[in-house]
Automatic annotation (TrEMBL):
It is found in: Cytoplasm. The keyword Lipid biosynthesis applies. Gene3D superfamilies: Hexapeptide repeat proteins (2.160.10.10), Udp N-acetylglucosamine O-acyltransferase, C-terminal domain (1.20.1180.10). This is Acyl-[acyl-carrier-protein]--UDP-N-acetylglucosamine O-acyltransferase. Involved in the biosynthesis of lipid A, a phosphorylated glycolipid that anchors the lipopolysaccharide to the outer membrane of the cell. It catalyses: a (3R)-hydroxyacyl-[ACP] + UDP-N-acetyl-alpha-D-glucosamine = a UDP-3-O-[(3R)-3-hydroxyacyl]-N-acetyl-alpha-D-glucosamine + holo-[ACP]. PANTHER family: ACYL-[ACYL-CARRIER-PROTEIN]--UDP-N-ACETYLGLUCOSAMINE O-ACYLTRANSFERASE, ACYL-[ACYL-CARRIER-PROTEIN]--UDP-N-ACETYLGLUCOSAMINE O-ACYLTRANSFERASE, MITOCHONDRIAL-RELATED. Its main location: cytoplasm. Pfam families: Acetyltransf_11, Hexapep.
Length: 259
C-alpha cells in the first residue's frame, strides 16, 4: 500500500495493499479502505467508516464524525460508502445516530461534489449526483440515479425518488416522487424528468406511460388515493408505474405536488 509518511493511521484499520493514502490524512480506529481507493490529501476519516473499492476522496473531506444530533449518546455507529464513488473537497458525511440501523450509507458510482453534507442515518443509493453545497438532514433517503442540484436543503426523513431531479437552490420538505422534476424554495413538481430518463435509456413507450401516470396523479383534480386507483385501472402496470405508485403510497411526510 502507498501511505504517505505524514499520514496518521489508527488502530485496527484495514487498508488494502492497492489503496493510496496521501499527505496529512488522518485515519481513525477501525476504518476499512478497499482496493484502489485514493485519498488525495488532508482528509480526516473517523472511526468505524468503511470505504469501497476505487473511490477518490479529495482534500479536506471529513467522513465518519459523530452526528449533529442532541440525542446521540456516543454509541458505536458507522458510515459505509460503496465503490467507484467520488467525494469532492470539504464534503462531510456523518455517522449514524440513535433510532436507526446504525449506519449512514452511500452507494456505488456516486458523485458527491464540493461542500456537500450528508447527515446521520441517510441512505443514498447508487449513481446519485449531489451538486455543490447540497445538504441532507438526518434520515433522508435518496434513491438510485437521483440528481440533486446545488445549494439544496432536504428536510429530515424526506425521500428523493429514483431518477428524479431536484433543481438548485430548492428546499425539499416533502417526498419527491420517482421520475419527476422538483424545484423551488418550497419545492413543487414541474413535470416528468423526460430528458434524464432518455439519457438513462428509458424507451419512448416507458416515458409516455409515465407521462400519463403523472397527469392523472398530479395534474387532474383528484386526491392521491383516487388518482392511484385510476392509474391502476387505466394504465399498464409496468415496473416503473408500480414503483411510482408504491413510493407515493408509502409516504409519511406528504408528496410534492405541482405548482
Amino acid at each position: 500500500m502507498q501511505i504517505h509518511p505524514t499520514a496518521i493511521i489508527g488502530a485496527d484499520t484495514k487498508i488494502d495493499d492497492e489503496a493510496v493514502i496521501g499527505p496529512f490524512c488522518i485515519i481513525g480506529d477501525g476504518v476499512k479502505i478497499a482496493k484502489g481507493t485514493r485519498l488525495i490529501s488532508n482528509i480526516v476519516i473517523d472511526e468505524n467508516t468503511e470505504i469501497g473499492a476505487d473511490c477518490v476522496i479529495h482534500p479536506f473531506a471529513g467522513l465518519g464524525f459523530p452526528p449533529q444530533d442532541l440525542k446521540y449518546d456516543g454509541r458505536k455507529t458507522g458510515v459505509k460508502i460503496g465503490s467507484n464513488t467520488i467525494i469532492r473537497e470539504y464534503s462531510t458525511i456523518h455517522r449514524a445516530s440513535v433510532g436507526g440501523d446504525g449506519l449512514t450509507e452511500i452507494g456505488d458510482n456516486c458523485f458527491i461534489m464540493a461542500y456537500v453534507h450528508i447527515a446521520h442515518d441517510c441512505k443514498v443509493g447508487n449513481h446519485v449526483v449531489m451538486a455543490n453545497a447540497a445538504t441532507l438532514a438526518g434520515h433522508v433517503e435518496v434513491e438510485d440515479h437521483a440528481v440533486i442540484g446545488g445549494i439544496v436543503a432536504v428536510h429530515q426523513f424526506t425521500r428523493i425518488g429514483a431518477y428524479s431531479m431536484v433543481g438548485g437552490f430548492s428546499g425539499i420538505g416533502q417526498d419527491v416522487p420517482p421520475f419527476t422534476i422538483a424545484s423551488g424554495a418550497r419545492a413543487k413538481l414541474y413535470g416528468l424528468n423526460s430528458i434524464g430518463l432518455k439519457r438513462k435509456g428509458f424507451t419512448d413507450d416507458q416515458i409516455q406511460n409515465l407521462k400519463k401516470a403523472y397527469k392523472i396523479l398530479f395534474r387532474d383534480k383528484h386526491t392521491l388515493k383516487e388518482a392511484i386507483k385510476q392509474v391502476e385501472h387505466e394504465l399498464d402496470m409496468t415496473d416503473e408505474i408500480k414503483k411510482l405508485i408504491e413510493f407515493i403510497s408509502n409516504n409519511k411526510r406528504g408528496i410534492c405536488r405541482k405548482t
